[in-house]
Sequence to fold (177 residues):
Amino acid sequence: VILAAIIAIVCWENHHPRVIFTVNGDKVHLGDLMTDIYMTESTGQYMDSLYKQNYGATASYWNAETDDGQTYGELLKDNTLEAAMQRAMLYNEAVAAGFTLSEEDNANCEESATSTFDQLTAAVRNKTGLTKEAILAYYQKKTLADNYKASWIDTFEIDDEALIKEAGITKEDYRQY
Fold:
């Protein structure tokens, strides 16, 4: 009986969807974040390869510490979660406000999803469980959230030219950026 209970607990822990965070009652599971995680790990792997070129084969970007003592791996994890939370909140607000994607937005999302999915190796597909549909849903939610955020920012009366002038920023001084 004890062995059966232990097996049941282990199976439950390994096979039920893990809730990572909740936004306004909507649960976001680990599977919902796989595209975010894949994107972050891809960026991290690229940075790690550059880091190894500069600091040697045994150096690790993931374990290198920032000025505040946090590793880049921890920093990327935190940034990924914060971006996913922000996107979930903005997406919910966009849907509530009646925002929808245009045909052009949908076409761009489809193109991005196809490109991303085609880059996945079979091993990554198996490990993450990512499908083209999941990646497409990620891009659609991200685009809708980004559109909503941009429209919200546009409601503010911001004089960009005055800000640039006040800050003393000139194209000549900052052309390298």
The longest helix spans residues 72-96.
